[in-house]
Specification:
It comes from Taklimakanibacter albus. The structure is a single chain. This protein is α/β, with parallel strands linked by helices. It has three domains: 262 residues, Aldolase class I (TIM Barrel); 95 residues, no CATH class; 57 residues, Double Stranded RNA Binding Domain. An eight-stranded parallel barrel has the order 2-3-4-5-6-7-8-9, surrounded by seven helices. It has a three-stranded antiparallel β-sheet with strand order 14-15-16, covered by helices on one side. The chain has a three-stranded antiparallel β-sheet with strand order 17-18-19. The longest helix has 19 residues. The N and C termini lie far apart (65 Å).
C-alpha cells in the first residue's frame, strides 16, 4: 500500500526564538540549520527578514540546504499596495525558496488588532500571496488564531483559508495560537476545513499551553492535514510549541502512523535524534530534560527490580520502542529499590563482566542500599555509581590524593569601590611523588574549589582541560543544624559527554568536594589514562 507523504516544518529559528532567554546569533542559526537539514526536515523557517540585523543577514544570501529554506513575515498592510509596503518588500527580497506569511483568521482580531474590515483582510491575503507567487516563491499562510476564530465565526475562518488556497498558497496552516484547543476539537475542525481546502494543502501549527501541542498535531494529521510545524525540544513563547523531537519518532515508529505515512526522516537519521536534541540543549546552555519522551536520560530508565528482571528477559515488557532506534539507551538504575537484575544489567553496560553467583554482587548491592539510606542517590548519579562499583571490584586506578583543602570567604571592596563577596580556595594534591598546591578564586566556595582542584594535576592535566561544571544542585535531606546535605554535580567535556556525581555530608563543602573529585576521576577513567600513564593500582 502506498503511504502518504507528511511534511515536517521546523520553526525553531523563528517561533522558537520567542522563548524567554533564547536569542540566536547568526552562527547559532547556521549550526542549527545544518542539524535540522541532516535530520531530514522538509522546511526550515529561518526568521523574519528586516525584523533585526541577525535575520536580515541570514536572508541576505541563499543558504544551500536540502530542506526548503523559508522566510517568515506579515501580509501587507490594509490600504496599501504590495509594492508600497516596505515590510513586505523586505520579505520578498529574501534569498529563499519559500515564504510563510501570517494573517488574522479570527474576525475579533481583524476588528480589534488590525482595525479593518473582514473584506479588506481577505484582500490583503490575496494580494500578498499573488505578489510572492509572481516572483516564483512557494507560499504558505499561517492562519493565526484559526481554531479560536473557527469556534467564534466558522464561516469567516473558512473564508480566510479558502482565499489563501485559491490565491495559490501551497500550504494553508491552521494555527492554535493561544494553545487552548483540545484534540477532539482539532479533529472536528480540521475535518470541516478539508471540505473546503484539500488536506494535501493543510498544515498544523500548535502551541503547548494545555500540554496538548503534540497530541493536537497528531490529531490534525489523522483528521487530514499533511504538514506539521514545530520546534526542537518544543521551545517557543509562553509554554512552547509542538515538540518535533516527540512528533517525529511517533510518526516513524508507531504503527498507526508509520503504516499510513512517510516522512523525510529515515530510520538511519532517526537514530541521531537523541544526539540532535541534546546538542541543541548544549547550544542553549541548558541541561537536557531527563524525562523528555524518547530522548531523555530517563526515557528508558528502570528503577524497580521487578521491572528490570522482566526487561533483561524481554525488553518489550516495559519499553514501547527500542531505545537505540532514536539513539538513546536503556538504563537500569541502581538504588535502594533495585534488585540484582538492575545491578547485573548496569555492570554489563559499563563493561564489567561479573558472574551472577559472585559474592561481591551482594556486597555491592548492600553497600548501595546503605549509602542511599545515608542520603546518596545513585539513580541520578550514574558516574558515582560506576566508580563505586569499580572500586569494590578493584578496577579504578589511583590517580591522585587530595592531602588537604582550605576555603576562605571574604567580603571586600573591589577596584570600583563595590562591596563584593569572593571565595578563595587552596587545594593540595599528590600525583605519584609530586605535590601540587593550587589556588583558585570564585564567586562561591564550591566554584573556588572547582577552579583550584582542576588547575594543575600534573601528568593528568591535559585530560581534564575540557572538563567543566555544567550544573550544581543542593538538597537538604533533614532539618536542623545537623542537617545532611546532598550535592549533585553535572559535568561535561568538549565532546559533549555529560555525567553526574554525588556527594553527601553534614558539611556542604565536603559534599561538594566529594562530587567534584568523583567527576574528575570519572573523566580520567573514561579517557583510559590508567594504562597509558602507568597509574598505580589501588591496593
Amino acid at each position: 500500500m502506498t503511504r502518504e507523504r507528511l511534511y515536517l516544518f521546523d520553526t525553531t529559528l523563528r517561533d522558537g526564538q520567542q522563548t524567554p532567554g533564547v536569542d540566536f546569533s547568526l552562527d547559532d542559526k547556521l549550526v542549527i540549520m545544518e542539524m535540522l537539514d541532516q535530520l531530514g526536515l522538509d522546511y526550515i523557517e529561518g526568521g523574519y527578514p528586516g525584523a533585526n540585523p541577525t535575520d536580515t543577514a541570514l536572508f541576505a544570501e541563499a543558504r544551500p540546504t536540502k530542506a526548503t529554506f523559508t522566510a517568515f513575515g506579515m501580509v501587507k498592510r490594509a490600504g496599501r499596495s504590495a509594492s508600497n509596503d516596505p515590510g513586505l518588500q523586505d520579505i520578498l527580497r529574501a534569498k529563499v525558496k519559500a515564504i510563510c506569511f501570517v494573517a488574522k483568521s479570527w474576525d475579533y482580531h481583524v476588528r480589534v488588532a488590525l482595525q479593518t474590515t473582514n473584506e479588506e483582510n481577505l484582500l490583503t491575503i490575496k494580494d500578498t500571496i499573488e505578489s510572492a507567487k509572481a516572483l516564483g516563491r512557494e507560499v504558505l499562510l499561517d492562519c493565526e488564531h484559526f481554531f479560536d476564530g473557527f469556534k467564534a465565526n466558522p464561516a469567516y475562518a473558512l473564508e480566510v483559508a479558502k482565499t489563501a488556497y485559491e490565491a495559490g498558497a501551497r500550504w494553508v496552516v491552521l494555527c492554535d495560537t493561544n494553545g487552548g484547543t483540545l484534540p477532539p476539537e482539532v479533529s472536528e475542525i480540521v475535518r470541516e476545513v478539508t471540505k473546503t481546502v484539500p488536506g494535501s494543502h493543510l498544515g498544523i501549527h500548535a502551541h503547548n499551553d494545555t500540554e496538548q501541542a503534540v497530541a493536537n498535531s497528531l490529531a490534525a494529521v489523522l483528521a487530514g492535514v499533511r504538514q506539521i510545524q514545530g520546534t526542537l525540544n518544543g521551545i517557543g513563547e509562553r509554554c512552547g510549541n509542538a515538540n518535533l523531537v516527540s512528533i517525529i519518532p511517533t510518526l516513524v515508529l508507531k504503527k498507526e502512523f508509520a503504516e499510513r505515512f512517510e516522512t523525510g526522516v529515515t530510520e538511519e537519521k532517526l537514530a541521531t535524534l537523541t544526539h540532535v536534541s541534546r546538542a541543541f540543549d548544549e547550544l542553549l546552555n541548558r541541561s537536557p530534560n531527563a524525562q523528555a519522551p524518547y530522548v531523555g536520560r530517563s526515557a528508558f530508565a528502570t528503577k524497580a527490580g521487578i521491572h528490570a528482571s522482566a526487561i533483561v528477559k524481554e525488553p518489550e515488557t516495559y519499553e514501547h520502542v527500542p531505545p537505540d532506534s532514536i539513539g538513546n539507551r536503556r538504563r537500569m538504575l541502581v538504588s535502594d529499590q533495585a534488585g540484582k537484575s538492575n545491578l547485573l544489567a548496569e555492570l554489563a553496560r559499563i563493561g564489567l563482566a561479573v558472574d551472577k553467583s559472585d559474592s561481591r554482587l551482594d556486597t555491592l548491592l548492600r553497600e548501595v542500599k546503605e549509602r542511599e539510606a545515608q542520603g546518596y542517590a545513585y539513580d541520578g548519579a550514574d558516574a558515582s555509581f560506576e566508580l563505586l562499583a569499580r572500586r569494590m571490584l578493584g578496577t579504578v586506578p589511583h590517580y591522585f590524593d587530595v592531602q588537604s583543602f582550605r576555603v576562605i570567604v571574604e567580603q571586600r571592596h573591589n577596584a570600583l569601590g563595590e562591596l563584593v563577596t569572593m571565595s578563595e580556595a587552596v587545594v593540595k594534591v599528590k600525583v605519584d611523588d609530586e605535590i601540587f598546591i593550587n589556588a583558585g578564586e570564585g564567586n562561591g566556595p564550591v566554584n573556588a574549589l572547582d577552579v583550584a582542584l582542576r588547575k594543575d594535576l600534573g601528568k593528568y592535566q591535559r585530560f581534564i582541560d575540557d572538563l567543566e561544571l555544567a550544573d550544581y544542585k543542593v538538597r537538604i535531606l533533614n532539618g536542623g543544624t545537623g542537617a545532611t546535605t546532598r550535592v549533585l554535580v553535572e559535568s561535561r567535556d568538549g565532546e559533549g559527554n555529560r555525567w553526574f556525581t554525588v556527594g553527601v555530608s553534614p558539611n556542604i563543602v565536603d559534599a561538594s568536594f566529594q562530587a567534584l573529585s568523583d567527576s574528575i576521576v570519572f573523566k580520567l577513567l573514561r579517557e583510559e589514562v590508567a594504562g597509558a600513564e602507568k597509574a598505580t593500582p589501588r591496593p
